[in-house]
Each structure stands twice: as C-alpha cells, then as structure tokens.
Amino acid sequence: xxxxxxxxxxxIFSAVMLVLFAAAVSVAAFGMGIEVPAPEQRxxxxxxxxxxxxxxxxxxxxxxxxxxxxxxxxxxAVPQWEFLPKELTIPAGSSVSFYVTSPDVQHGFKIQNTxxxxxxxxxxxxxxxxxxxxxxxxDFICTEYCGSGDRK
Length: 152
What we know:
Layout: H1 5-31, E1 41-42, E2 60-65, E3 68-76, E4 82-84, E5 94-101, E6 107-111, E7 117-120, E8 124-132, E9 140-141
Parallel strand pairs: 3-5
Antiparallel strand pairs: 1-8, 2-3, 3-4, 5-8, 6-7, 6-9
C-alpha cells in the first residue's frame, strides 16, 4: 500500500503531538500535583441550611487560628437571590478558606478584585483559600444565571 509523503508526514506529526500531549498531562498530574477540581465534601441540600450541626445553618466567618479564618457561605435563590452572610469583615493579611454550598440551584461565586471564582453546586461544598493582603471592600457576586430574579 502506497502512502503519499504528505499524508505520512501528517500521521507522524499527529502521533508526535499525541505523545507530547500525553506527556504534558502526565507531568502536570503526577509531577506538579495538578488535579481536577472536586468537591471538598458532600451535604444534603434539603437540610444543609436547617440542620443545627451544619455550619451553614449559621453561616459566617470563624477564626481557626491567628490570621486564619474559615468562611461558611450559603448561596441561595429562594426566598431571594443572595449569599449568606451578605457581608464579612476580614482583617488585612488574613488567609480565608471559603466553604460555599447551595440548597437549591447551581450558582457561581466570585470575589471581585481577586482570582477567586468557582461553581457552587447543590449537595457539594466548594472550597477555596485566598489571602487578603490589601484592606478594602471585596464584593462577592453570582457569575451563573440561576433564575429570573438573579441580580448580575
């Protein structure tokens, strides 16, 4: 069987690229520790906001050690589109781990003027740790359309 040189070169190029991409993924996954995002934990979306043992029944900021905080945020569309609590006061220079979940629909969670941006899926807890070096106001907004009352 005769293969045109142009076609043979493209097959060789494709095979080399396939090997290079596989090597890049392997190095990223095993050598650099890069992982696909996964939920921090799973919760029951029907009871996450009402269970007295759930940190989202009383969302807010909790100091875990000097300069380190955990923030439990509840994103919800019912009765109104909001994040609870609506406001957090974080001292400058602090590191905050955000634990965000939703009891109803999928939301997006973005902290403006930072690189914090992730999806919030009912039944899953999304976690992101960020350091706030600069004092100021950092609004958090929903980046996912989650219904007719969603305020963008």
